[in-house]
Amino acid sequence: xxxxxxxxxxxxxxxxxxxxxxxxxxxxxxxxxxxxxxxxxxxxxxxxxxxxxxxxxxxxxxxxxxxxxxxxxxxxxxxxxxxxxxxxxxxxxxxxxxxxx
Length: 101
Prior knowledge:
It is built from four helices and no strands. The protein is mainly α and 101 residues long. The chain has one domain (2-100). The longest helix is centred in the middle third of the chain and has 29 residues, at 33-61. The chain is globular and about 45 Å long.
């Protein structure tokens, strides 16, 4: 349990660090306020939609296996970003990371 709490803390800190500076990055890329709103809304909406899927999957195969799948799928993009040297690859991996978490 303490390991899971530590992992969730690190994930939420990583997400929380991005939130305050995201409007400035979006403005740099020419995003409108509406696009920024959509960008901010995607994470909680996808979390809401995927929670029911993972809950059913957890009931079927067990919560420990689902947690391990989640931890591994969260660790893979970080590892890929560490070994990647191209900006495009890092951006693509970052999008995958957000989709998997």
